[in-house]
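Wed. Picked up where I left off yesterday with RUN3B protein. The coffee machine is broken again, so keeping this brief.
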Amino acid sequence: SFCLKGEGLDGSYPAVIDYTPYLKFTQSSDSISSDEEELRTLGSSGSEGSTPENIGPPFITDENSWYNKCKRVEQKYRLALEQKGYLEELVRLRENQLSESVSQNKLLLQRIEDMDLAHKMEKEQLEYIIVELQDQL
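Structure written out below (tokens, as returned):
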């Protein structure tokens, strides 16, 4: 759907599709469990009570889970990178729109000043004509 507003229907403005409502982060149950697992591993490896039995076999046998974690992190990274690119493009577009608006604002202010000056000159001329007509009477 779209909405037509204003007078600018010449197509000089770029078409913009706003995807910001879809850029929300949702955390899946897999990522929650993997986060909890990482916290447990980090907490147990940093403690002084860790024994040599805790080191070794679990790290060697879990290569597949590490590979899956790596893939998930890579997918998250790619998603974040795509969102970053989209947001940067959106910022560039908004900056261009802002600069165009600023230039249009300056033009309109100049036009207002010119119209004000013309109005004052016309008023002075009319006052001069009124004084001449009063003198003739």
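Quick read: The radius of gyration is 34 Å.
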